[in-house]
Amino acid sequence: MRDLPGKYAIAGVGETEYSRASGRSTRALGVEAVRLAILDAGLTPRDIDGMLSYHSNDSTPSIAIAADLGIRLNTYADVIGGGSSTEGLVAYAMGLLEVGLCRGVVIFRAMNGYSEFRIGGTGARAATPVRGLELADRPYGMLSAGQRFAPVFMRHMFEYGTTSAQAAHVKVAHSRHAAANPKALLRTPVTVDEVLASRWVVKPLHLLDCCLETDNATALVVTSTERARDGRQPPARILAAAGRVNRDRPDYFYQGRYTTVAGVHARELVFPAAGIEPADVDVTGAYDAFTFTAMLQLEAFGFCERGEGGAYVSSGAIELGGRRPNNTSGGHLCEGYTHGMSMVIENVRQLRGTVDDYCPRASQGVHTYEYRPGGCRQVKDARIAMNMGWASPATGSALILAGSRL
Fold first, then answer.
1. Pick the catalytic residue: 287, 312, 358, 371?
2. DSSP state, 29?
3. What is the mean pLDDT of residues 74-78?
4. How many domains are there within the chain?
5. Global confidence as pTM
6. Parallel, antiparallel, or unpaired: how do β-strands 200-202 and 205-206 relate?
């Protein structure tokens, strides 16, 4: 990656409504998101010749989306995967561009994650046969992500004295951010006491520690920075990307020091490649399937010391107006669950200065910086943004973006 920082960029972003009853197929959702991303980039379907997507056997293949939009592809790939996929596919898109196979690559994720195939383990997912790696955990009650990850969260509490109240501050911060997001499913700020009073799902996770299963589609356009400069929007330049980085034994991560998540290895790849340190990052997007996942990633990527994640997220640092706001759209906990794509979209808009909040001239980059419900969520002078993807404690990703002003 040494010769690539800034050579490629995210030129366009697109998303559908976030809902719990889309009433549409994943194909229709995907077409809308991809079309909007291409328009946002100032391109046409003829400018796109590569397409990448990820799914859990719950979506629509790239060739169907491309056909509906009149796109002829030089290559495509629909990969199995979840929360560590967005950043990884950005890296793959850079590779396709670098070898000359493509000139413009669209990445999309389309899912009816509430009305059809629920990530939480109920609905269609619960009816699937037990097979493969699931034989090691699913027969013992570990059906959902929360059940699988809970031992890691509990171990962090045991080793470092982390408390549920500290982790609850992630939900509190993200709910305040979502209160300035017209698209968010949950726009009512919550308190630490309300998080702790919500029912148990699996200890140490309360209901409000968990994300919002959602119907939606999201998309990104990746192309060269040179080409993106001629588009409709200022390019978000890609300084570094790493996808699906593993720690030891990703197939069974309850061994060794399993509070050390895969981000510690991804960190060693992206920061040297980008030529920056964690202190240089202005805004973060840490995958928040749960409050604890965001906390563990911020710790693993070096925004605080080992074991200090609870203190960091409860200090005010991750709130708008704090040292390094996290998930300024409300993230998966409050805006809607998108398998990571929406947090990259949010950071692209942060770097453009055009976050879609309630400021009357937000689309023109004019913001009040008054952080309140129904107000502003644009980070002032955001220059570098970082996204951290999470598939499990043993698999993670990262993406570092820079605005055109840097």
1. 287
2. H
3. 98
4. 1
5. 0.95
6. antiparallel
